[in-house]
Amino acid sequence: MSNNRKSWETFEAMRAAAQSGDAQAQCYMGVCCQNGQGVQQDYQEAVKWFRKAADQNDPVAQCYLGVCYLSGVGVPQELSEAARWLREAAEQGDPAAQFNLGTLYETGQGVPLNYADALKWYRESAQRGYPAAQFNLGVFYESGQVVDQNYREAAKWYLAAAEQELAPAQCNLGLCYQTGRGVEKNPAEAMRWFLKAARQGDKTAQHNLGIHFAQMEATETAARQAQEQNPQDNGAQ
């Protein structure tokens, strides 16, 4: 839902628009107060502006307000209220809200535990290009939870998220190439994705790389020892 958002040339112009009731400007004021951009950081003030915009049905502000209730930042944590605002935004097509609402259904926070609804919202978000939702959708397909197990579909969604530099997706895509699940087995491609994820600090990818290099070293050592024990294999007559 970041498309067609307004912009202002100066912070003061944006603040004036917010004070005059412009919902998008109010949402931006909330972001500024939350991050301390142009104003002193104030989480409660951020919530005030998010609420003003959310009450005018601004989906981005509704998502921010939902996340505030989810995390207890600027307001007491209240999961049912988080779910209410995230749903308002999700139903308007906000991908971040759709993802967060999916996580609530997957974990049963603020809503009844429901994997089918989690999958539904992850898919909505993933189709709008949200990388974390693409990754979670891939996990559903790989595990066969709610949907039929489909490694090819899992790899497709991992790739979509991996190309947006999401480290866990890069790691899982590497595993797909390593095992040949959903893609043609390709050790070099597996290492390429593991390396990308490892450079971002992904522990599983770092572990997989360590195993790979240890195996390479063991293979090279065994080959060298075999040559030393059988020098005739080096071409001696």
Index terms:
single chain, 237 residues, mainly alpha, Serine Threonine Protein Phosphatase 5, Tetratricopeptide repeat, 0% strand, elongated
Written account of the structure:
By secondary structure, this protein is an all-alpha fold. It has a domain at 144-230: Serine Threonine Protein Phosphatase 5, Tetratricopeptide repeat, CATH 1.25.40.10. Helix content is 69%, strand content 0%. It is built from twelve helices and no strands. Helix 1 (11-19) crosses helix 2 (23-35), helix 2 packs antiparallel against helix 3 and helix 8 packs antiparallel against helix 9. The chain is elongated, with a radius of gyration of 24 Å.
The average pLDDT is: 93
Give the CA-CA distance, first to last residue: 74 Å
CATH topology grouping of the domain at 144-230: Serine Threonine Protein Phosphatase 5, Tetratricopeptide repeat
Unreliable parts: none
The rough form would be described as elongated
Biggest pleated sheet: none
Helix content: 55-70%
Main structural class: mainly alpha
In sequence order, what are the helices and strands, one letter per element? HHHHHHHHHHHH
Number of strands: 0
Radius of gyration: 24 Å
What is the beta-strand fraction? under 5%
Q: By CATH's scheme, which homologous superfamily of the domain at 144-230 applies? A: Tetratricopeptide repeat domain
